[in-house]
Design brief:
By secondary structure, the chain is α/β, with parallel strands linked by helices. Helices cover 39% and strands 16% of the residues. A seven-stranded mixed β-sheet has the order 1-7-6-2-5-3-4. α4 links the parallel β3 and β4. GO terms for molecular function: acyltransferase activity.
Length: 234
C-alpha cells in the first residue's frame, strides 16, 4: 500500500498532518477496493451505557474499517498491542484511531486499569479477543483478558463477525502487514445482539466458569460467521 520511503516521509511530518494524509489515502483505497456490507447495526441502537465491541481478527485493515463504521455513533477506543507502534506502517494505523496500548501475552495491570477507567467513564471499547490476527482466516482461541474487563465494567458486549478483510489486506509470508497493495474484496460486517456474561452456577469451579464464559463470548462472534471462519469455535 505504502512504500517504506513514503512512510518515512509521512512520519517526518507533524502528527495532525500525518493523520490527515493517512486517512485520505486509506479512505481512497477503501472506496476503490472494498465493497462494504453491514448487517444488524440496528440491533445496538437501544443499548444503554458503554459498550464493549468484540470481533474476530483477520487483517490490519480491521481496526480502520470498524472505526469507520462505528466512529460517528460510538467513537470507540481500540485496545491495541503496543508492538503495533513499533512498525512505521502499522503505527500510522494506530494514529488514525483512539487507542489504549497493552502488552501482549502478559498481565498488563496498568493497561487493564486504564481500560476499565475508560469504560466506567462512559467510553465505548473495541477489542479483538483473539489478541492477534488469524493466519488462516479461521478463529483462534480467545484470550481471557476480556473476561476481567467485562466483569469490572459490567458493560454490555456486542459481538461482530467480519469477513473479507483477509483478502482486502492479506498477511504476507512474514506475518506482517502484507499491505504492499490492496486487493478488491467484499467486506461483510455483521453485528449480533448485545450479550452479558453468564452467571456463575452454584459450586461451579472458577476455572470451569471462566472457560464457559470464554466459550460463550467467542461463540457469539463465531455464530455470525460462515462455517470456514469459525475455527476452534465451530
Amino acid at each position: 500500500m505504502l512504500s517504506p520511503s513514503v512512510v518515512k516521509l509521512i512520519n517526518a511530518l507533524p502528527e495532525s498532518v500525518v493523520v490527515k494524509i493517512t486517512k485520505f489515502i486509506v479512505n481512497k483505497y477503501f472506496k476503490k477496493y472494498a465493497n462494504f456490507k453491514i448487517e444488524g447495526f440496528e440491533k445496538i441502537e437501544s443499548t444503554d451505557g458503554p459498550i464493549i465491541f468484540i470481533c474476530n481478527h483477520l487483517s490490519n485493515a480491521d481496526g480502520l474499517i470498524l472505526d469507520k463504521v462505528l466512529r460517528e455513533k460510538y467513537d470507540p477506543t481500540f485496545v491495541a498491542g503496543i508492538k503495533l507502534s513499533n512498525d512505521p506502517v502499522t503505527k500510522l494505523g494506530t494514529m488514525m484511531v483512539k487507542n489504549v496500548g497493552i502488552k501482549p501475552n502478559s498481565a498488563d495491570k496498568e493497561a487493564i486499569t486504564n481500560i476499565v477507567k475508560l469504560v466506567r467513564g462512559g467510553e465505548n471499547l473495541m477489542i479483538f479477543p483473539e489478541g492477534t490476527r488469524s493466519r488462516t482466516g479461521a478463529m483462534i482461541e480467545g484470550k481471557k483478558g476480556i473476561l476481567l474487563i467485562a466483569r469490572l465494567t459490567k458493560a454490555k458486549i456486542v459481538p461482530i463477525g467480519m469477513t473479507g478483510t483477509e483478502i482486502l489486506l492479506p498477511i504476507n509470508d512474514n506475518g506482517d502487514m502484507g499491505g504492499e497493495k490492496f486487493n478488491y474484496a467484499d467486506v461483510n460486517i455483521k453485528f449480533g445482539d448485545p450479550i452479558s456474561l453468564p452467571k456463575k452456577e452454584k459450586d461451579e469451579d472458577k476455572h470451569d466458569y471462566d472457560n464457559r464464559c470464554m466459550e460463550y463470548i467467542m461463540k457469539s462472534i463465531a455464530n455470525l460467521l460462515p462455517e470456514k471462519y469459525k475455527g476452534v469455535y465451530k
